[in-house]
Amino acid sequence: MDAIKNEYQVILERKAEKAEGSYTAYLFEQGIDKILKKVGEECSETIIAAKNNNKEETVFEITDLLYHILVMMAEQGITPEDIDEELEKRAQKRNNLKVFHKVDKNS
Questions:
Q1: Where are the beta strands (DSSP E) in 4-104?
Q2: 37-70: string of b/e by CB count within 10 Å (b at 16+)?
Q3: How open is the CA angle 25-76-86, to the nearest 5 degrees?
Q4: How large is the angle between the packed helices 55-76 and 2-17, nearest 10 degrees?
Q5: pTM (2 decimals)?
Q6: What are 33-71's pLDDT values in tens digits?
Q7: Which residue would you say has higher pLDDT here, 86 or 103?
Q8: What are phi and psi of 29, to 5 degrees?
């Protein structure tokens, strides 16, 4: 996960620098609506690649999706550490299995 944290740092730098010609800076300039649109597009492309059972394309699309999610996180002030903390909380609940109510489909 170091690669994700490193990418997040680069995204923060691009946000601060507002470098001309930077796609990341362009996304921040356009705002949250554009960023969310790209997250949605990349999510759909990831689903299609997975549905096509193409590992190479799926990895490529997951990477695009993660990048755009990191941009969204930076825009919202959410850090990778915030995500790590939430994952840790969920890991502590792993042995607390829920019992799901079964529905009788014949009634």
A1: none
A2: ebbeebbebbeebeeeeeeeebeebbebbbbbbb
A3: 130
A4: 50
A5: 0.84
A6: 999 999 999 999 999 999 999 999 999 999 999 999 999
A7: 86
A8: -65, -35
